[in-house]
Amino acid sequence: MASAKKRGPLAPAIRRDPYEVLGVSRDSSDQEIKSAYHKLALNVLADAEKRRLYDNAGFEALESDGIDMEIDLSSLGTVNTVFAALFSKLGVPIKTTVSTTVLEEALSGLITIRPLPLGTSVSGKVEKQNAHFFSVTINEQQAQSGIVVRVTSAAQSKFKLLYFEEEANGGYGLALQEDSEKTGKVTSAGMYFLHFQVYRMDSTVSALAVAKDPESAFFKRLEGIQPCEVSELKAGTHIFAVYGDNFFKTASYTIEALCATTFEETTEKLKDIEDQILTKRNELRLFETDYRKALTRYQEVTNRYSQEKQSVDELLKRRESVQSSFTMIKLPADGSGCGSSKVPGGEFRAESPTEDGRDKSAKKKWFNLSFKG
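Request: output the structure for the sequence above.
Response:
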């Protein structure tokens, strides 16, 4: 057995200040600390993925600005997977990729496919980094009406909903994927083939934008809206899959395929809300420019307010000092000599009269009388 390198018994443990690690000051707000933590988490996972890309594809792929960063859980190892699970639990969105094994099996056609009739639902549990495949067969009328495939998990499992297209060799290639999102007390993902443009939410895009600029969190909430590549299905058989995306355990799910014929009102509502969200995203982009201009102007005004207030206070203080200089009275520092006053031409001491109004000088003469016995 190879001997491990031992550490000296007196070697001090290396500990770093958590504020230093996050790059924030000790008086930072909770939101600032949380944003810094999320940014650090994303950087740690990105570095792990960059190292993998460096080993596989070389330095050129690592330096590409347009690279779409996705984490392959099978390449992270146990320790990094634990960190990824912790970060995900804290609300850091982690974009993962479908394992190569699943993609190769689908491409070769070596997969088990179960039928999923329209209007029915199927529940199951899928192992992590594995997939359960389902076939949905539709006729021409159903294709014209539109098809919806949704997956939910009451256990709030992480999963992916996948759509495969048939290849020339008889296998299936991945065409679409939707990551599960937490909606209320469940996690869910859906694909909507309704003959109009439907958008999906990529939470990692918004999270990365917020990590770079926490103040823009509100304006970046809709930046993750991305158009789906496929908006309609033709008559025939189509292959979907539920992929287990949990870090350690199996994913519980329920999948269902629906025809939009019985959901005409809901379909119109979805079309309307998608248009409103897209319009709102464009409005926010314009509003952000105006907001930042106004914010800059506000900061300038508040800074001037502070300067003007300090200037006015200083002027009033100087004015009071100048006004108090108009006096001939000199007040001793110890408070003595309160009865003396200084006037031009000399000094004098004012004598106060007695209680009966007689002059003190007369009283003094009375005491000077001599008596002879």
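The first helix runs from residue 18 to 22.
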